[in-house]
Amino acid sequence: MANALRIQPLEDRVYGNNGVILQPLEACERISLRAEDKAIAGLGKAIGLALPKKPGTSSEKNGIIAMWIGPDEWFVTAPEGTGLEAKIDKVKTGLYSAVSINHRNTGLTISGKNAVNALNSGCPRDLSLTVFPVGACSRTMIAKAEVILYRTDEQEFRVECWRSFSDYVWKYLMDAARSA
Amino acid sequence: MLKIHCPYCEEDRPELEFHGAGEAHIARPTNMAELSNEDFEKFFFIRDNDKGIVFERWRHLHGCGRFFNAARHSVSDKFIKTYKAGEKKPKLTKKEIEAVLPPAKSTPANEAVWTIEKEGKK
Ligand SMILES: [Zn+2]
Questions:
Q1: What is the ipTM of this complex?
Q2: Which domain holds residue B95?
Q3: What confidence tens digit (pLDDT) does each residue in A51-74 have?
Q4: B63 touches chain A (CB under 8 A)
Q5: What is the CATH number of the domain that holds B106?
Q6: What are the extents of the domains in chain A?
Q7: Searching chain A, which residue's CA lies closest to the CA of residue B9?
Q8: Can you spell out the DSSP letters for A141-177?
Q9: Helix (H, G, I), strand (E, B), or coil: what is residue B20?
Q10: Contact status of A34 with chain B (Cβ, < 8 Å)
Q11: Is the CB of residue A39 less than 8 Å away from at least one CB of chain B?
């Protein structure tokens, strides 16, 4: 029997040099969630964590992460097999829209003592720990590509982008790492 | 780099996350089909395009995605304030306006590139 094999756009890549490590993320579930106020509590209950209401913050529980993207928009991600869509489907209170974007997006982690320098060569945001602490998240730009940036540790970030941009983002950060 | 304060993200963010979206506080007519061609043109195409204090719509396109409004000086490019969509046009104080005026005369930013009378000529 033939089997369809899912290949990630950054499959098999790895880069490490000059205090910067780039690694592709494993496949995971991703939801672009838009919701009015009335739906927020129910959605949080269904997903298993409270959706953050403060700009630029996130919440995490059991590997599920919800990131504040806009006043009525969240990026929710979880390991494969969590079944986010089915959980959200049960919510009947308030208006909301949940769109699975795990085939549109892909991600990478950038870590190491020069990770901030490499990111800052294409992203003009202040990534100091006081302004962008661990757990901070935001939609922003890396050079010409729109990304979601999420700080997972003092020297580690998750970068989410559209899969067609991922080769560009990877090579841009690799180039930046060389001169970080 | 120019920094713009997003009233929804509640922080100053780099300009390349934003997109200008034209003049603010334009009341859309509710009786569009009954408008004369002249009135439609006035509403649809004609903008004040002031040299000085302007009220504009902006969108935090590569951030929270929200539209908001801004009061800005169109010569110095300096922002006075930004505020959420739907909020009233703010009354600006003399002090706020003075703080964003372009530099004194005879600087490139202050000189007209061309005038109607001498169109095309420097
Ligand atoms: Zn914003």
A1: 0.92
A2: 3-119
A3: 999 999 999 999 999 999 999 999
A4: yes
A5: 3.30.2270.10
A6: 15-178
A7: A55
A8: EETTEEEEEEEEETTEEEEEEEGGGHHHHHHHHHHHH
A9: strand
A10: no
A11: no
